[in-house]
Amino acid sequence: MQALIDTRQPRLVEAEIHAAYLTMFPNGDRDYIPKIFRWAVACFEGKYRDYQAIDAHYHDLEHTMQGSLCMARLLLLRHQQPVEPRMTQRMLELGMLAILMHDTGYLKKRSDTEGTGAKYTLTHVDRSMEFAAELMRCHHFTPQEITGVQNMIGCTGVNVKIETIRFQSELERLTGFALGSSDLLGQMSAEDYVDKLPVLYLEFAEAAAFNGDKMRAGGFFSSALDLMQKTPQFWSNYVQQKINRDFLAVYRFLNDPYPNGKNPYIERIEANMARLNRQLTELAQA
Predict the structure, then answer these.
(1) CA distance 182 to 64
(2) Looking at the domain 10-285, which fold is it?
(3) Is residue 45 within 8 Å of 53, Cβ to Cβ?
(4) Nearest to residue 106, comparing CAs of 123, 94, 88, 90?
(5) Are 77 and 99 in contact (CB under 8 A)?
(6) Could you read off the pLDDT of 103-150 as tens digits, one per residue?
(7) Where are the domains of the chain?
(8) In the predicted model, is pLDDT for residue 214 greater than 60?
């Protein structure tokens, strides 16, 4: 059973991911994970170039830590199984950078003083891909590596058609699927996920106002209660379909034991859905 980690503390998440990396690749670059964590924390704390600290209240640094921790665990457990293609050190390094950068599209330039980064909800995936490319070019990554990270980030788009992403290899594709799965599982399994749904609604509402429409393509919600009422359907009709069909059920490597054991992330999400349904019932009866 995986230990619960306080994802509000990036250093704790970094330590577990660093340990997972060295377990997989004992002769790997011991400075790599600490280095990309320094980059990510600097970006979210407003210490990177002319970007402000993150001011989106749901898609914050903790959200990124939740997904990153899940992805590292998933890839470590997959690496321990006799499956192909085998993870390489470099692909793991690129995958972890990709998930650390996957929501940088919510960051605002210092000159951007209107609203919060939540207004970029509809475009944040493309903006994250552009941000990652900018940062990677500064650190002398190759064009192929930049494209790979962008492809992986592209897997987090709500309405993305996976078949349109031009992955450069099967391993890059699998790593992108691990990222997309972990982005969803990491946040929805969080202990405070149900409590933060009204905060998520406020992000959607700001994005809708900024875009001047009802975010029809994104399934805009009329109220926080409406979002809460639709979240169990989101889990059963969208997320489960996404992680099983589009992402080829790579999340099952988190099963303990593999392949048919219990999945701690799925169990925590189902507990959150049960809690949410109880709250909705109580509200309806009040």
Answers:
(1) 10
(2) Catalytic domain of cyclic nucleotide phosphodiesterase 4b2b (1.10.1300)
(3) yes
(4) 123
(5) no
(6) 999 999 999 999 999 999 999 999 999 999 999 999 999 999 999 999
(7) 10-285
(8) no
